[in-house]
Amino acid sequence: MLSGGAESSILLWDLESADNTSKRCTHRPSDALRKSASTSSHKFGITHLSFYPFDSQAFLSSSYDHSLKIYATETLTPSANFDLNSVVYSHALSPIADHLLVACATQHPAIRLVDLRSGASAHSLPGHQGAVLSVAWSPQNHHLLASGGSDGTVRLWDIRRSAGSLGVLDLEDSVGIKGEDGLGKNARSPQYGKAHNGACNGVVWTDDGNHLVTAGHDERVRVWDVNVRANTLSHFGPTVKNTHLSTLLPMVVPSHVVPAGTQIMLYPNEREILMFDLFDGTLLKRLRASEGAVGLGRRSVERQNIKNRVTSLCWRGGDVEMYSAHSDGMIRAWKPRTAAEVEVEEEESQDADEGEDETRKRKRQILDDVFRDLTKQKITFT
What's the pTM? Predict the structure, then answer.
């Protein structure tokens, strides 16, 4: 696993290696790239990290220093550096396409496309009226790209088209475009409309490519039927918070992990992680980290002065395990409890309840004795 810090460091973690105790599992970085005077490291905070989807021996990083870099995982040495002359908020490389185009969301209102084959970074996709904050390639369509910007719009792009943009998603449109076959074939998408009443800083796909999940500064998460470009009107209630300009990505749990026909979304909500049913918006669970939570990394000495905000989430491939990054410098691991762990916790809880009952009885007995002694005293009024 990779992690990047606000001080520009990049850490590499071996998730199979840990210091285990009876109640705690602590991971330590297997390698680290710290800020230095050389050109190998970023100069400012890391905004996004991702492994090369076809080979984990390479990864990409973007930063507030206007650059996109490619590193070799084993040596942490850069193999390519692209200066995009603008803050890079996030980047995306298609997990299925062979075109090797990295889409970059930057402070500039046009999406920058970096071609890893040629090394060119001149191609761009204009359309947003402000900074582009989040980009995501479709997991099913090689040429389909989605983007969210500070102008509140979410745009879909076909990089094969000269015009590029396929249109925008409109929060007021719950019908969508039907087209020739009722599923959007050859239909024209709207070119005007907003997906959020505020900046959109999170765009993610479901793994079947049929739905898009977006998060915005209007403190709303919306789910879109991409085939007809319609708002599904999923409502997640007033608990959702989103106020920071940095990219904030909801995470859709892989479909093979949940029951058939179910989609679960995890949302990094300030000091907690919210678990929702993706389509009906039901809040299923709140995940909060305790002081003794399992974590990776070093506890900050200034932790008491830092708001413990959840900044990002990632899923461990091939396992039922999630990791969350926090503004206190910690990375916390989340995994389901085993049946044995549940049984032990229930026994401990039962013992604790019995102990509390005994304590209450003793306190009650003391109060009764005090009251009885007072009532036996003779009181004279003069």
Answer: 0.81
